[in-house]
């Protein structure tokens, strides 16, 4: 409940207001009273109320002096002055102190109640905005972490333009100039489809594994990034001021700890291979390649291998290939997937065929497909239920061409499967929603209204929208409104309140707040920055 204190030297006023104000209806609570400004100041500092109702003329310290001193203490309460003095100078002082309202005695109960309701609405709005701002700040922290991680991932996979570093990344990599760098490849020693985690709670496994790795890394290194590459592999990039020899000792130590801890806590065997140490972060891809070259093919992959076999250049460039294949699978783009597979196997045609290595390659590509579909809510086992013994199917193949044809066949089955029909229907539904939003932007559009029109649940519709668009309906419609408003303001054909109405905001003040939150500028600021000839 909202806390209210009243400061007045008239006992009748105190007693009367305490009795007649509809506290429960307003969701307010009487939090205390005082009869002079000094006691009032002490009370407010102690209680920290949401609303203060005060007289001006009181003994020891008057109401305005009390407010002045509390303002110096960063008073956040809404202050309502209720005074028998109508002196203009008092009113002007109250304005300077940002007093929320100034009422003259005697004020009617309706007037007091109306002012309290307005103050409470403002408080509620401010609290909502504060919560949204805190959420935004938290998202920024998470977003910045993701930006750093994605940039490092692009450097490692060789897709980043290291000569043109985005401004948002520069402060991250400035600290790497005088450090050594290395990549660790963390590979699961068996297909995760065979583990209990895959069938019970895959997300729990990812969370647990991420926590174990981060906790261990923080004991030794302060600057590192961990990200998943595939369902079966993760990558650690590490940056250290240690000299190369000491750094390598630390890398061997942390690699052993990761292997032991994941085996101990999650009962999943992993292999951690160490890439080369480099003084230039731009060459992280070389360290990654070295780590992959040292990655051991686990004996559990194929009964044909009598011992672990070290991979050669077979999968050295596999991360870039896997990203392209994953993207093609996510969009059911059979042509793009076939092109990726064809390009990859073209490089293998002159390589000697090794059955165990081919089995592993097939499993890796299969796992990429599984993971890609899992990310968009589809299950590979439902699309291709006949694949009960993948290792056997791969082990009977005798050359690279047969493996290529096997992968191409499975990819085609995935891309043309009827499961995509449902996905296509969802996309068409979202396209209709987007079209409706664009045509009715000036109206009060809610997801519930749209759901009612379509006779489906609001939550289900919201989930479909977010899966397809990548953001919630609420965020989407706010973004579209702000982009439309920005364009209209820059064109200069409408006043601010007209723009507010045309993008669905009945309250210009709330429109201004939302616009600034989205663009960093108020509508007035944007207009002032508009070129003079516009």
Nutshell version of this structure?
One of its GO terms (biological process) is phosphorelay signal transduction system. The chain is 59% helix and 11% strand.
The parts where pLDDT drops under 50 for at least 5 residues are: 139-144, 297-316
> What would you call the quaternary organization?
single chain
Structural class: alpha/beta
Q: For this structure, what is the CATH homologous superfamily of the largest domain?
A: Response regulator
Report how far apart the termini are: 50 Å
CATH C-level class of the largest domain: Alpha Beta
Percent of residues in helices: 55-70%
- CATH architecture field of the largest domain: 3-Layer(aba) Sandwich
Count of spatially separate domains: 4
Secondary structure tally: strands? 11
Strand content: 5-15%
How many DSSP H or I helices?
24
Strand order of the largest sheet: 2-1-3-4-5
Structural Rg: 33 Å
Q: Main sheet, how many strands, which sense, barrel?
A: 5 strands, parallel
Overall geometry comes to: elongated
Mean pLDDT: 78
CATH topology of the largest domain: Rossmann fold
How would you explain this protein's 3D organization?
- This protein is an alpha/beta fold and 534 residues long.
- It folds into 4 domains: 2-128, Response regulator (Rossmann fold, 3-Layer(aba) Sandwich); 173-294, Alpha-Beta Plaits, CATH 3.30.70; 314-417; 421-528, Orthogonal Bundle (Arc Repressor Mutant, subunit A).
- The chain has 24 helices and 11 strands.
- The protein has a 5-stranded parallel β-sheet with strand order 2-1-3-4-5, with helices on both faces. It has a 4-stranded antiparallel β-sheet with strand order 7-8-6-9, with helices on both faces. A two-stranded antiparallel ribbon has the order 10-11.
- The protein is elongated, with a radius of gyration of 33 Å.
- The two termini are 50 Å apart.
- Keywords: Coiled coil, Cytoplasm, DNA-binding, Phosphoprotein, Transcription, Transcription regulation, Two-component regulatory system.
- It is found in: Cytoplasm.
